[in-house]
Write a structure and sequence with these properties.
The chain has a domain of about 120 residues. Helices cover about 85% and strands about 5% of the residues. The protein has four helices and two strands, in the order H-H-H-H-E-E. Helix 1 packs antiparallel against helix 2 and helix 1 packs antiparallel against helix 4. It is elongated and about 80 Å long.
């Protein structure tokens, strides 16, 4: 009887180990995918910022009227984007090789999703402000307001599309993790109550 109990116990430990390994593998693959997505997106933002700063500064010296302020606005705005991208890439280095539990991964996954939703609202505010400045510039014949307004519309529109695409990609990973979390259930077992991982 004792031998049989031991065999059952060892079998249960083996099954639980395989279940935890399967869970950790999925969790790790999603963490790796999140890292790659974040690095790619920050690199795209840095590239966009670099192109806009160089092109904006060069074009502003040769342009006149509202166009001059449009290019100036693009250059100034992307100093901010370049700072965000640089900081983000620096912070991302801390995640290389990091291992996550399922709970830690769920929390880590929610951070970019919430940030991107907030950014989407800000992007709409940038576009709205740009439209207001353009209208004011046209009404008052003000080249500065007109040019900066056009710049805000362009930059806000780029960031809006950029953030929505990022959110969609991250949300797919979030759904996978949430599905994984629902497969962990507290259930009665033959020896009492335990945490059971349900394969589907």
């Amino acid at each position: 009887m004792k031998k049989k109990t031991r065999l059952i116990f060892l079998f249960c430990i083996l099954v639980m180990s395989l279940q935890v390994y399967a869970q950790q593998s999925l969790s790790d693959s999603i963490a790796t995918d999140r890292y790659i997505k974040n690095k790619t997106n920050l690199t795209i933002l840095a590239s966009w910022a670099g192109v806009n700063m160089v092109q904006g500064m060069v074009s502003a010296t040769n342009a006149k009227g509202a166009d001059k302020y449009f290019f100036e606005g693009n250059a100034y705005w992307n100093l901010f984007n370049a700072g965000i991208a640089t900081y983000g890439l620096f912070q991302l280095k801390k995640e290389i090789g990091k291992k996550y539990t399922l709970a830690e991964n769920l929390v880590a996954q929610q951070k970019p999703e919430k940030l991107l939703l907030l950014n989407t609202g800000l992007d709409l505010a940038y576009i709205t402000t740009g439209l207001y400045l353009r209208e004011r510039g046209d009404r008052l014949n003000n080249d500065r307001a007109n040019g900066y307004g056009g710049s805000l519309i362009l930059q806000g529109a780029f960031l809006l599309v950029f953030d929505i695409v990022q959110y969609g990609n991250h949300r797919r990973n979030g759904k996978l993790l949430e599905k994984e979390a629902t497969q962990l259930q507290i259930m009665p077992t033959s020896t009492g109550v335990g945490l059971v991982y349900r394969f589907k």
